[in-house]
């Protein structure tokens, strides 16, 4: 059985959508493409992940990787066709997946630069893939924990 709440609109104009089932939690955000959106996304993710069985270190790794992906969606999307980016998170059967999607083109790094370490950092923190297309960039971040156990027991023992 799926329980669905209506979108919540926050003070910064972002919206969040929460859908839950007995063993899957799914949350989506549509956030304005401004850096001020990232801390709110991080707080929302923390609330979702704090209810999982992930360790504090695993949660912090996922939050840092997702924040970097969101920062990149804001700062590096070239000529975005929409003024927002989307974040979709799912906690299911011991696996956490966070997807960040922007609506701009891929901006190649210019050298020399003191920047450009974000993708390497995300990949060090979690299983991370990046797909670029003419419709935007999608970063998928997955926890390294596999199998049952990432969901906290709602009965609490």
Describe this protein's structure.
The protein is 26% helix and 31% strand. It is α+β, with helices and mostly antiparallel strands and 157 residues long. The chain has one domain (3-142): Histidine kinase-like ATPase, C-terminal domain (Heat Shock Protein 90). The protein is globular. The model is unreliable at 1-7, 18-22 and 147-157 (pLDDT under 50).
Quick structural gist:
With about 160 residues, this protein is of the alpha+beta class. It is built from three helices and eight strands, in the order ββββααββαββ. About 25% of the residues lie in helices and about 30% in strands.
Structural topology:
Elements: E1 3-4, E2 8-9, E3 15-20, E4 24-32, H1 37-49, H2 56-75, E5 84-92, E6 95-101, H3 118-125, E7 127-133, E8 136-142
Antiparallel strand pairs: 1-3, 2-3, 3-4, 4-5, 5-6, 6-8, 7-8
Helix pairs in contact: 1-2, 2-3
Task: Please describe the structure with a list of short key phrases separated by commas or semicolons.
single chain, 157 residues, alpha+beta, Heat Shock Protein 90, eight-stranded antiparallel β-sheet, 26% helix
Would you count the extended β strands for me?
8
The figure for the number of domains is: 1
Mean pLDDT: 79
CATH architectural label: 2-Layer Sandwich
The helical percent reads 25-40%
The chain-level structural class is: alpha+beta
Number of helices: 3
